[in-house]
Automatic annotation (TrEMBL):
Gly residues composition bias: residue spans: 591-601
Protein name (record): Copper-containing nitrite reductase
Signal peptide residues on this chain, from the entry's feature table: none
Keyword Transferase attached: no
Family: Belongs to the multicopper oxidase family.
Enzyme Commission numbers on file: 1.7.2.1
Cofactor(s) listed: Cu(2+); Cu(+)
Xref: SUPFAM superfamilies: Cupredoxins
Domain EfeO-type cupredoxin-like: 476-547
Ranges annotated as spanning the membrane: 24-41, 47-65, 86-104, 110-127, 147-167, 179-202, 222-242, 248-267, 279-298, 310-331, 352-369, 375-395, 436-456
Compositional bias segments (type: Low complexity): 579-589
Length: 894
């Protein structure tokens, strides 16, 4: 270590950055909270992206572009103008908050107002920069200010496109506006600002001089990037793939022009701290994302679900790393206080630099390219933790900066006004070996997290943990039998192969099914990985000594005919017992359907689920305001309790057996982003919409997503469910839910409840769905809202004299319901879009039950005149005794 002295006092002037930067911190904290609870928040994907881009990035751009404009133009603004800047940023955040609220509530007018305010504030900022540029003396780096002005003028147009998207468009036009919106906001507003800033900031961060030609390259880069942004935008709006793709290449050319000189600067002085490593990594992600965007456009279609593939690389890989990297350098520098305070603060923001960089970038790579749900969950948590470390490190940086300034003031000699030199210990820069060690540690942490994800769900990565069974004594021939097998249409082609005894068998398996995942497992223990559509794999079955059966292990596929047979020629009997092996998949043979239920043990429907149990909320909220409703449905494979002590291996929408309930009015538009984080292909079918099933109802492989848009043209309660074969198994595993479209002039009710009936068919001991029990019509349980008898122990509530409306849906997969409430009668019955009975009808009639076939629904209304406990049930009593019953506790009205 070495020592130096300083006698400089810290600046007493409070920076306006402190006030202006507060919204950035607020949005950062809100973003972290949302990241932890996003699965329970509607529009979570949209919120995560826009809270970062609008909340953090837009605020930061307005603050720091003004900072650099003053520094480069040597034109310091007065206090009155500072107050105007702070006011502008406050109004900007009101616009952002209005936009977020508008999207969440579905109130398009509020979204429009927010977009107008955002556009107006950023335009105001652009005009202010123009005035400063015009009144300042000529500057070598005036092109940077032009980057800022061009970027700020693009954002209002992008914000307008965002408002149009929120209003609701047909799917084809929506895709065009989405690409144009992203081109203007990401490539234009964010990209231009970043590159324009780095023209001057990058050499400063490296602590080296600007290389010759960088300023000139900045001017050429601006022209190319601006032209590319506009060309991509126009091509997107017109639906012209070639101009849109060409615009991406022109934009990329601008990145290359400036990037060449960025590299030259880095060769003069290599990156050696978090800020430079982070910014450099962000630029690599930007380059890769641009190449990916080019390929998406030229291979077509550039629809929303394909564009979403670039969200994580652009937002988490590029924008977040550049922003936090630059902030790690700029905040300590702007806090000032002299070189000692700045240096000490920078040392804090640089702690564990390469560890954080490695976790972020290696974790993002695994997240982007992995299809395993648990691997993605764990790696995303590690990346988030690495980003979150910015906050405590920045707090430490502020503290040590303040401490250094106070130490300098305390050492001032008050007798003669002179300053006594302060001895300061300066740590040497980290050695390359330390960076390598920390980077290696980061990679190990991510690999350990990915390994834990694989262990939690080995099937998601095609891992075969079974032991190969012993084989009969057959002399090896040394020859190989090789066969090509195609998986399609729920069959293997060919479905059998003849192999001479003693030969080795190699199967070239291809998945030629366009929609879903398949694999092949043999009784002897060998198994292929799960193949996405179009993928191939080699399955080495080893030495064949006896006949062997095989099948696809995806739930339900074996029962639908996906079986394979290996026949032995000239060897021992081909009885499969000669080569006993492990059973694979939930379709494998077992000891029969005995009703023992899932992994927790036998079903006991009379057992109290205990004090920790919380019944699913059956109370319905009114239809939300607005005419456009957006939701994200994430497909997950999880264990869910369906009865006391009984767990089902469930496939779910957003983690629930019986997915989220949607509600709206006739004429409303629904947009659902379906994300498959399961291990096999899934889909969704909304009965509430009348749309061609070819695209929106198709099965998507793990890791992919699609956007399903429909307009509710008719009222009623409608089923949605997974439509991937075998459909019965997917519904029985939990993939269903309700969409309620209110009839026009629906009268008010004091209480509204929703009850969705479904069936559970559980394989003995495993909790997986038993497809043979479905075929035999032998459910283990018939349940309301995902859990048997839950409302017997936690009753629904009502008071005497209240009008109670109960919506009922029979989700199946196979059984209907006869909904009845013991001790009262219905005065209103609405079934499948029409009233069968109305209150105060001239016949003075009533109804005792609402009969529904599978996939039918409706509602009943009644009024309880006396307090008491009223049981509701499926009056097909065998099903009521399997769990389709509950209680309404009626108390005396005050």
């Amino acid at each position: 270590m070495r020592t130096t002295t300083t006698g400089r006092l810290p600046a007493a002037r409070a920076s306006w950055h402190r006030k202006a930067s507060r919204p950035v911190l607020v949005w950062f904290v809100l973003l972290l909270v949302l990241a932890l609870v996003h699965r329970w928040v509607p529009e979570s994907r949209w919120l995560l992206v826009h809270m970062f881009v609008l909340g953090m990035v837009t605020n930061s751009i307005l603050i720091w572009s003004q900072h650099f404009a003053e520094a480069l133009l040597k034109n310091r603004l007065g206090e009155e103008q500072r107050n105007i800047q702070v006011l502008r940023i406050r109004l900007l955040n009101l616009g952002i908050a209005a936009t977020v609220a508008g999207v969440l509530t579905g109130i398009w007018a509020l979204t429009l107002v927010g977009a107008v305010v955002i556009g107006a504030m950023v335009t105001w900022h652009a005009v202010s920069l123009m005035q400063q540029l015009r009144t300042a003396l000529p500057s070598r780096f005036g092109s940077t200010i032009k980057y800022y002005i061009a970027a700020a003028l693009l954002l209002p147009v992008g914000a307008a496109f965002g408002a149009v998207l929120a209003y609701g468009l047909d799917e084809r036009v929506h895709a065009r506006f989405l690409l144009a919106h992203q081109a203007l906001n990401v490539l234009g507003f964010v990209g231009l600002t970043v590159i324009g800033t780095l023209v001057t900031l990058w050499p400063t961060m490296l602590r080296t001089r600007m290389v010759d030609g960088l300023a000139r390259a900045g001017r050429w880069g601006l022209a190319a990037m601006l032209a590319g942004t506009l060309l991509t935008t126009v091509g997107a709006l017109a639906g012209w793939a070639v101009p849109a793709a060409l615009g991406v290449l022109v934009y990329l050319d601008g990145i290359v022009i400036t990037g060449f000189y960025f590299v030259k600067c880095a060769l003069q002085k290599r990156p050696n701290d978090y800020s430079t490593f982070s910014v450099a990594a962000g630029l690599f992600w930007l380059t890769g994302s641009l190449l990916g965007l080019f390929l998406l456009i030229v291979t077509g279609p550039a629809d929303p679900e394909r564009l979403h593939l670039l969200t994580v690389p652009v937002v988490a890989g590029f924008a977040a790393q550049v922003l936090l990297g630059a902030m790690s350098f700029l905040m300590p520098t702007v806090m000032g206080g002299g070189p000692v305070a700045v240096r000490n603060a920078l040392q804090e923001t640089n702690r564990f630099a390469m560890l954080r960089i490695a976790v972020i970038n290696f974790g993002l790579l695994i997240f982007v390219f992995s299809e395993a749900s648990w691997v993605r969950v764990i790696t995303s948590a590690l990346v988030l933790a690495a980003y979150v470390s910015f906050l405590p490190l920045m707090v430490r940086a502020v503290r040590v900066s303040v401490a250094a300034r106070k130490a300098t003031v305390r050492d001032q000699d008050g007798s003669n006004g002179l300053r006594r030199p302060v001895r300061v210990t300066i740590e040497p820069p980290p050695a390359p070996q330390r960076h390598l060690a920390l980077a290696a540690a980061g990679v190990v942490i991510v690999l350990a997290g990915a390994g834990a994800g694989i262990m939690l769900d080995p099937a998601a990565v095609g891992l075969n943990l079974a032991q190969r069974a012993g084989t009969a004594e057959v002399e090896a021939t040394g020859e190989e039998t090789r066969v090509k097998v195609s998986a399609r249409d729920m069959q293997f082609h060919p479905a059998s192969v003849d192999v001479p005894a003693g030969n080795t068998l190699v199967i070239e398996l291809s998945n030629d099914d366009p929609t879903t995942v398949h694999d092949l497992a043999l009784e002897t223990g060998e198994r292929s990985e799960r193949l996405r559509p179009g993928e191939t794999a080699i399955l080495d079955a080893g030495l064949i000594t006896a006949g062997t059966d095989g099948w696809c292990t995806v739930v339900g596929h074996r029962s639908m005919g996906m079986v394979f047979e290996v026949n032995v020629i000239g060897g021992p009997s081909d009885d499969p017992a000669a080569a006993a092996g492990a059973n694979y998949g939930s379709d494998s043979n077992h000891g029969g359907h005995g009703g023992s239920g899932g992994t927790g043990g036998p079903l006991n429907l009379s057992e109290d689920p205990g004090p920790g149990f919380v019944a699913r909320e059956a109370a319905l909220q009114p239809a939300p305001a607005g005419t456009v409703h957006r939701f994200t449905f994430e497909i997950k494979q999880e264990q869910r309790a369906i009865a006391p002590g009984v767990l089902q291996e469930a496939w779910t929408y957003n983690g629930q057996v019986n997915g989220p309930t949607l509600r709206g009015r006739v004429g409303d538009t629904f947009e659902i982003t379906l994300v498959n984080n399961g291990s096999i292909g899934h889909s969704i079918d909304f009965h509430a919409g009348a749309v061609s099933p070819d695209e929106v109802m198709r099965s998507i492989p793990p890791g992919e997503s699609l956007v399903y848009r429909f307009r509710a043209e008719r009222s009623g309660i409608w089923l949605y469910h997974c439509a991937t074969a075998p459909v019965s198994a997917h519904i029985a595993s939990g993939m269903f839910g309700a969409v309620i479209i209110d009839p026009p002039n629906l009268p008010p009710a004091d209480r509204e409840y929703l009850l969705v009936q479904s069936e559970a068919y559980l394989e003995d001991g495993s909790g997986a769905v038993d497809v043979r029990a479905i075929a035999a019509g032998q459910p283990d349980a018939v349940i309301w809202n995902g859990h048997a008898n839950q409302y017997m122990f936690q009753p629904l509530q009502a008071e005497t004299g209240e009008r109670v409306r109960v919506w009922v849906l029979a989700a199946g997969p196979s059984r209907g319901t006869s909904f009845h409430i013991v001790g009262d009668q219905f005065d209103t019955v609405f079934k499948e879009g029409a009233y069968l009975l109305r209150k105060d009808n001239p016949e003075q009639g009533g109804a005792q039950s609402l009969d529904l076939a599978p996939a039918q629904g409706g509602y009943v209304e009644l009024q309880f005149d006396q307090p008491g406990n009223y049981m509701f049930l499926n009056h097909s009593l065998a099903d009521a005794e399997r769990g389709a019953q509950g209680m309404i506790a009626v108390t005396e009205a005050p």
